[in-house]
Design brief:
Layout: H1 5-103, H2 109-123, H3 130-147, E1 151-160, E2 163-172, E3 176-181, E4 187-191, E5 196-199, H4 205-215
Antiparallel strand pairs: 1-2, 2-3, 3-4, 4-5
Helix pairs in contact: 1-2, 1-3, 2-3
């Protein structure tokens, strides 16, 4: 039997078409897989770039933190050195303050020296910070400075010729420190050179009385003629 050429051609065409469909299917599958790989690659690349940016950011943060730690270490070392220098300075300031008070006109002497002793007690206290100790030392100096412009009056006793005499005491800063008996018949001025009270002549009775009145705000401040023996 002789094969029909037309049928053979049709069968061959059908086979070719089936093969083409299979090839196209394979191509579509490969293309799809390729697109998936490309998308995954791009995603990985994007994540890698993001991770690189993040890592660079973290690296800068770590570098900044390390720099801060080094700065803190330097500051701590500076603070320690400052404390080592400030503490001896405060002791010298306290000693100098005590020497000044003892050399000064002897008003409020007990309370002023007591303030110095309190400073020494505070210096030995571990519960008080160095900065607070320094503040208190400066405060003591401020108090002493304020005495230079204060005008005050008080009462007390003077020992004269073995007798205790009740007196009014007036002080104009550190310039004048005078006393007058209650009967207004005697007056004295403190001589800081000899560390003693010196009796004044009658011509000074009225000026001393005015100084005391001014200190008590019983009279306005004005110039008076008095001998001056201030602190050296």
């Amino acid at each position: 039997m002789i094969a029909d050429p037309l049928n053979d051609v049709q069968k061959a065409g059908q086979q070719i078409q089936k093969a083409a469909v299979k090839s196209q299917t394979k191509i579509d599958n490969v293309y799809g897989q390729t697109q998936e790989l490309i998308a995954e690659y791009r995603s990985i690349v994007d994540e890698t770039e993001l991770m690189k940016v993040y890592n660079d950011h973290v690296a800068r943060l770590v570098a900044d933190q390390n720099a801060s730690i080094e700065s803190f270490d330097r500051q701590i070392a500076t603070i320690d050195n400052t404390k080592q220098n400030v503490v001896p300075l405060m002791y010298r300031m306290i000693d100098t303050l005590e020497q000044f008070i003892k050399a000064d006109v002897p008003f409020n002497l007990d309370s002023r020296l007591a303030r110095v002793e309190r400073l020494r007690e505070i210096m030995a206290s571990a519960s008080v910070t160095t900065s607070e100790k320094f503040r208190l030392v400066l405060e003591a100096y401020t108090v002493e400075t304020a005495y230079s412009s204060a005008v005050t009056a008080s009462q007390g006793t003077l020992e004269v010729d073995g007798k205790n005499i009740n007196v009014d005491i007036g002080r104009l800063g550190r310039i004048t420190y005078v006393a007058q008996s209650f009967d207004l018949k005697n007056a004295w001025v403190w001589d800081n050179n000899t560390k003693e009270w010196k009796k004044l002549g009658e011509e000074y009775l009225k000026p001393v009385k005015e100084v005391i009145r001014m200190a008590r705000k019983q009279a306005t401040l004005e110039l008076v003629k008095l001998p001056i023996f201030g602190a050296e």
